Amino acid sequence: MNILIVKLSAIGDVVHTLPSLSALRRLYPSAKITWVIEETAADLIVGNPYLHRVIISRRKKWFHELKKGNFSVVNSIKQFIGELRREHFDLVIDFHGLFKSAMLVFLSRATIKLGYDSMQELSGLFLTHKVYEDKGKHAVCRYLDLVRYLVDMNIGKPRRDVLLEDEKAEFPIPVGKEEEEKIKALMAEQGLREGQFIAISPHALWATKLWEAEKFARLAGMIYREIGLDVVFTGAHTYETKDIIERLTIPFVDLTGKTSLKELALLFRKARAVISTDSGPMHIAAAMKTPVVALFGPTDPKRTGPYGNNNAVVTADISCRPCFLKRCEKKTCMHLLTERDVVDALKRVL
User: Fold this and answer.
1) Where in the chain is the domain with CATH 3.40.50.2000?
2) Facing residues of 314 across strands?
3) Looking at per-residue confidence, does 287 or 124 come out higher?
4) Domain 177-349 CATH assignment equals 3.10.129.10
5) Which of 265, 261, 313, 306 lies closest to 286 in space, CA to CA?
6) Which of 25, 113, 158, 291 could be disulfide-bonded to 273 (CB atoms 3.0-4.6 Å)?
């Protein structure tokens, strides 16, 4: 059985697909499994022992260069397409469900093309097998529904003794010796002890998911004074994180922009808890089974909240959320969240 997983991005969505990868490996122990992914999240799966191969799409870079008139990237695009076509996949699973993933499904020339029963961006156009997408479920469980379909239809003769239980989802992120040594050195340099610090990841890709810088700064002070744990800022180094750090009046550690995704995963594993906006790092922390306090505004934690039991979600009780808007002048759902709400939630998960 030669299987292709199509899940290109984003970081959180790739994390949500990891339990399906684990399930596929258990159902088809001798299968050859390949994952096609974009550059941004590739670090999460490169070196994964459940995968035979990772094919990286540099789609954004290709389009950027083509817009500038640099047609030398055409050779790189041809190589990428050639990699897909040479494999002769028996099965491709489109976990993404958008036009960009549908094109890869088509190019793969797989015998069985599985995805959701949806025509969003024409994603269902090239599928041979379709599954109803229950958007009331968490993304982890929705993705596992695609794998469960393979068992129900006996596609590829999966093992019948494998149980696919949502609550036992496994998130295999391959952290190796290199990452261990890097985080050990960083923690020693900063005087951090395992289990004695709170990691804060304030960045988010949507402006509507961001929380005010002054609140993050006051939150850090409350954690330091009330709970007595060190505060470490993590994730991307952006204008927003710089603004927060400039407001701090307590001792803190700034590791923003200093870790790869795998290193960040290991750092989170060593944290006492993680506080985050709705973002990729939040899902990485939950995957590492570290307690998470997640700040949610326009999105729905029932669908994409931190997966697992020992987590807390802080939201505002207002009628307009979840709205899933990337732009909003008021951002009331985030403005209503207070530092006290977050600290109280943190104390519950510690």
Assistant:
1) 2-168, 177-349
2) 295
3) 287
4) no
5) 306
6) 291
Residues forming beta bridges with residue 54, ordered by sequence position: 35
**What is the percentage of the chain residues whose pLDDT exceeds 70?**
100
> Which tokens is 328 given?
């909003």
DSSP state of 326: S
Rounded to 5, what percent of the chain is helix, strand, coil?
Answer: 45, 15, 40
Residue 217 tokens read as 């700064």
What is the CATH number assigned to the segment(s) 2-168? 3.40.50.2000
**Burial status of residue 123 (CB atoms within 10 A of its CB: 0-12, 13-18, 19 or more):** buried
pTM confidence score? 0.95
The rounded mean pLDDT for the chain is 95
Please write the tens of the pLDDT for every residue from 234-259: 999 888 899 999 999 999 999 999 99
Q: Closest Cα partner for 11 from 266, 235, 325? A: 235
Mean pLDDT of the region 261-278:
98
- SS3 letters across 260-318: CHHHHHHHHHHCCEEEEECCHHHHHHHHCCCCEEEECCCCCHHHHCCCCCCEEEECCCC
Residue 3's pLDDT band, with cuts at 50, 70 and 90, is: very high
